[in-house]
Amino acid sequence: MKKHNFSAGPCILPQDVFKEASRAVVDYNNSGLSIIEISHRSKDFVDIMEEARSLALELLGLEGKGYKALFLQGGASTQFLMTAYNLLQTKAGYINTGNWSDKSIKEAALFGDVVEIASSKKANYNHIPKGYKIPKGLDYIHCTSNNTIFGTQINDFPIADGPLVCDMSSDIFSRQLDFSKFDLIYAGAQKNMGAAGTTLVVVKEDILGKVERQIPSMLDYQLHINKASMFNTPPVFSVYTCMLTLRWLKKLGGISAIEEINEKKAKLLYSEIDLNPLFQGFTVEEDRSIMNATFTLLNEDLKETFDAMWKEAGINGLNGHRTVGGYRASMYNALSIESVAVLVDVMGDLERKA
Ligand SMILES: *Cc1c(COP(=O)(O)O)cnc(C)c1O
């Protein structure tokens, strides 16, 4: 039986993507060859890379606006240092909204001064800081749109004179934003886009070339742009799964269509969390993420019963991150509303039993 997969990442992808990708591993397009044994320089793979890059820009509404899409390696974690390597000359500003932001700050500090413009660390990141002042003279500002571990999401992004850089690993392609407000967006594939192994980078080309330091080839955005994201062997299978997911999303009606579904799923779960006296949300209401919902069970004595019940219902991946505890329901694009309804039913059953 197919599980209801609420895992935070690697996570659920559309069932059709799993099917098509597994067919391609055995035999790609009746070529008699697997997708993972053909040359990455072959027309078959170059077409896949080009389709993935152009679908990413198309879905974000960034075609013809000076942006380039790249599929790189090293995870979002490599982007923590790569952004700084390419953009940080003297001083950059960071909004610290969770563990991932904290890690990006640590990496950037190796390259120059980091100004922590705002932070919710003292409150164990249960909200998004607001009303902060942005200093002048920053090379760029970095923020994390969705905090996977804590379950908060930014709605009002910082407005700055310099470039805006955003880690969108866990909410890329999930909600409509004016993406042209951002100068560099990055996202590890394994949260909402494809198999682990590649990271999407969407960068406005004119922000590059402003730092004086020498940049090693593999960490140089400009070089990857010049080589059409094919400087070295790309993670072919991961890029292929991203391309299939982006095709699926386009067919479904794009980001605005999926956003409507994501809103419904989040509303269904959060209303149960709020109405059911046994549960409590972890974050402040106004900053709740529509991707990762974090909540706790108020009576620890019920934990064993609840855990047995959701496992029995075919649910997977509901345990919270060790720094938050409790539960985390990740509701990425491919998770159906029916899966959320199963979880809500289990929560209701627990209330009736208790
Ligand atoms: C998962 C995650 C990361 C780390 O991604 P890796 O690809 O494992 O390096 C970074 N930022 C956010 C917001 C994430 O959710």
Structure write-up:
The strands form four sheets. The chain has a seven-stranded mixed β-sheet with strand order 2-10-9-8-5-3-4, sandwiched between helices. It is globular, with a radius of gyration of 21 Å. α8 packs antiparallel against α9. The protein is built from nine helices and 14 strands. By secondary structure, it is α/β, with parallel strands linked by helices. The structure holds pyridoxal-5'-phosphate (PLP). Pyridoxal-5'-phosphate (PLP) binds at residues 9, 75-77, 100, 144, 148, 167, 169-170, 188, 191.
Shape: globular
Spans of at least 5 consecutive residues whose pLDDT stays below 50 are none
Enumerate how many helices there are, as a single number: 9
The counted number of beta strands is 14
Strand order of the largest sheet: 2-10-9-8-5-3-4
- The helix/strand series, from N terminus to C terminus, equals EHHEHEHEEEEEEEHHHEEHEEH
Q: What is the radius of gyration?
A: 21 Å
Strand content: 15-25%
Question: What brief labels describe this structure?
Answer:
354 residues; alpha/beta; three-stranded antiparallel beta sheet; 14 strands; 35% helix; 17% strand; globular; binds pyridoxal-5'-phosphate
Summarize the structure.
This protein has helices at residues 15-26, 43-60, 75-87, 99-108, 221-226, 236-252, 254-275, 303-312, 337-353; strands at 4-5, 67-72, 91-96, 113-119, 141-144, 146-147, 152-153, 164-167, 184-188, 199-204, 279-281, 292-297, 315-316, 327-330. With 354 residues, the chain is α/β, with parallel strands linked by helices. The strands form four sheets. Strands 2-10-9-8-5-3-4 form a seven-stranded mixed beta sheet, sandwiched between helices. Strands 11-12-14 form a three-stranded antiparallel beta sheet, covered by helices on one side.
